[in-house]
Amino acid sequence: MAGILGARTTRTPTGTLVIHCPVCKAQNVSAETYTSSEQLVLLYAIPFTPKSYTYWLTCPNCRETLRAEFEAEYLRAYPPEDIAGFIHHRVSPIKKLLAILAILFFFWPLLGLLLTIPAAIVNYKTRAWTRKVSLLALGLSVIAHLVFAAMGIFSSAGR
Predict the structure, then answer these.
(1) pTM, full prediction
(2) DSSP at 71
(3) Which domain holds residue 143?
């Protein structure tokens, strides 16, 4: 199936939009807007499905990517207070998965560090719950690994 089906994605800038950022709470900031279109194609050329469109904004203050329910042209007719109901902070499913795995397995020797370090790196600049969970998991994993190391030193010294 590889090589037969592919995805054609385009990103088109659509200007700016004055918003109240739901992430950093900045008021009246001019966010960059763009439309992302995606289409499944056969043999990398023949359209297989209709294009699907997603509308995005980037807050200039916190640099978070926000998803808009409607295109920027439609939202420009509304004041920032009303636009707030149509934009949402979206955390990547990969970031969510890494944070959850990190907190579940932080205490496992080696695997805990192998999960918590990438989770903390990926989620560090995110202002969502995934950052707090990932950093907590990393801290707990470091403590757990220090305890494991101390137990290993003391058990080998007792021989």
Answers:
(1) 0.61
(2) -
(3) 93-157
